[in-house]
Amino acid sequence: MSLSRLGSIATAGRLALAASTVCAALTLATPIASAQTSPPAGPLVDAEWLSKNLDNPKVRVFEVSVDPGVYERGHIPGAVNINWHSDLVDPVKRDIVAPAAFEALLEKAGVDKDTTIVLYGDNNNWFAAWGGWVFNQYGLGERVKLLDGGRKYWEKQALPLDTKAPSYAKTDITLPPAKPELRARLVNVLEVVDGKKDAVIVDIRSPDEYSGKLFAPEGSKELSIRAGHVPGAKNVPWSKAVDAETGKFKSKEELKKLYADAGIDGSKPVIVYCRIGERSSHTWYALSRILGYEVKNYDGSWTEYGNSVGVPVINLAGTVWQGK
Amino acid sequence: MPPPLHLALPSRLLPISVALLIAALLVGGTLALSAGDAASRALGLSLALGAVFGVILQRGRFCFVCNTRDLIDQRDPRGVLAILLALAVGVAGYTLVVGAWLPVPQPERLPPDAHIGPVSWVLALAAFAFGLGMAISGSCISAHLYRLGEGSPTSPFALLGTWLGFGLGFLTWNTLYLAVIAEAPVIWLPHHLGYAGTLAASLAGLALLAAAALAWAGGRATHDAAATGSTSLARAILVARWPAAVTGLAIGALSAASYLRVGPLGVTAEIGSLARSAASGWNILPDTLHGLDGFRGCATVLKETLLSENGLFVTGLVGASLASALLAGQFAPRRPTVRDVLAGLSGGVLMGWGAMTALGCTVGVLLSGIHAGALSGWVFLVASFFGLLAGLPLRRRWVPV
Fold this sequence. Notes:
The complex is a heterodimer of chains A (324) and B (401). Chain A has helices at residues 3-34, 47-51, 99-108, 122-137, 150-156, 186-193, 207-211, 252-261, 279-290, 301-305, and strands spanning 44-45, 59-63, 80-81, 116-120, 144-147, 200-203, 234-235, 270-273, 295-297. Chain A is an alpha/beta fold. Residues 1-34 of chain A have low confidence and may be disordered. Chain A is 34% helix and 10% strand. Chain A is globular and about 55 Å long. In chain A, the strands form 2 sheets. Chain A has a 5-stranded parallel sheet with strand order 1-5-4-2-3. Chain A has a 4-stranded parallel sheet with strand order 7-6-8-9, with helices on one face. In chain A, helix 4 (122-137) crosses helix 9. Chain A starts with a helix and ends in a 19-residue tail after the last helix. Chain B has helices at residues 13-34, 38-60, 64-74, 78-101, 121-137, 141-148, 155-179, 189-217, 233-238, 244-261, 269-281, 309-328, 338-358, 362-372, 375-398. The A-B interface holds A 68-69, 71-73, 86, 155, 163-165, 167, 219, 324 and B 37-38, 97, 100-103, 108, 111-113, 260-261, 263, 287, 302.
């Protein structure tokens, strides 16, 4: 046998070895696919479970981030992008997305009757939680879960990101009308302020906005011409509900204590508000979905209340609107 | 004209040492930032991409004014061909990236962060002013930044003028916005032509421009130094001007890579933000700049953090260009003359006003805009070219070469 023949046999051997190594790696990778499990009970899923269920056809992941452009530069593989400025709101009147538009969004994303919906986003799931509130209004309830920690925890765990936009086979679903009981209107807030209804109002803005020192945070476009808070409202900033390091919600016990210390123990219905109603959805999620309290989100929030004529306001700082 | 300030150096050791020190600082800064969280990693990448951009600009002499002037005066098409090649490669690169992000160019959806601006006569006027300003000052803003690294006597004044021009732009913005820009259409070509159609139309347009440049040059294209084979590889990379093809390919690839990972290339956002923060601090800015923050482009924001992506990009650009110029022996500072100062300041003011009003400059609107399939990029190209043509005679009269 010539030397060159021997050499080619050796090369073939190396190729076979490499091929078997690849096969072995693929075989080792297979259990990850077979590790797919039904989603854990409750309103949250963890990154570890989701990472093993990315190919699960019964799971659909949506990113709802505050910053446009975050999704495109890298998202959880297979996740569908939701632009909160246009996909979850009515583009003209101040309202949540209309049923037909919302159904079209879900159908295009391939959501079916038995799909588990996982929402996540940046900023500790700020607007993903708001998405959760909108999804819940359309009766998706227990099927909607937040990825605990959102993008922050996913990235912290160095889990993979993808830049391709996925496409799914279109489905056909019909949703029930939006649930009014998850939403508070100005009149509902005033009923509580006037003592006609018994409920706890929670203001989740910063202490400086609550006290009236600030009309709105720096750079905010949505403004009110009165500063302060709704009379009787308790101030529990939304960020206290999460662990600053991981972005995850605090444990159920810690959350229970956090709110109980402020007089919110679930014995009375709760109304949460912020400035435009999005951040307060995060607290709505903690109180309603995690602790199981009866909670409405007042999405008119301070931009509506602080601009309403004749409503009572508590302004501890005594600021006066100067037209600036 | 006063004599150049010759640096009396005993050898090339000092400039090479300084260049290596700067390179080490840029690499060290990138590594340090890249070890942080996601936001910090983006800052590290911006610094690295800025440094790469600075090296390409300096080594390739990639300058919209000088390249066009070379074509017009010397009938040398190399620089213009490099620009056109950079545009072609970037269009192809962006098509790959945007096609993955937005598989279908649906109406009302625009690729995130892409520099697609409103198209109106205000854009054309701003681009014309920018072209005029870059002709008078001798370079566009990105070239002034890399020439800062070469010790140019004009560039510091041109950049100061740009900063002032941005301030003027903020003062006229509301009037122009309410009169024209608010109603101006934001035209993204893939909405009308699809991705393939936009790519084909863009490449055809660029091919036509290349043919026109070659026809004007009349076959007088000079050979690139590296193509002659007379230089060593190290000399070809570190000292000789890079061939037009290499420069064009590198800029186009860098633009697409930057868009994929950080954002579109742009060099004025930081200057504009500094001007906006200063003007706001002095209370000379209108309380509200209508609609400005809703547009993409070289967007300006009030400075809230010391380190911004665009700030680090520009830092990397200037630092790497300085290191590159030192290595090539092209760092040649000279005491500025009154004409240098006046040409820099007046050209800079025109460029600053134009860049603010057009939401970017030759890099932000023209290069990144055309790459993204924005009609605004093409309008900027045409209008700034005519501004440049109008300004070149002024420059020749004012600052004789």
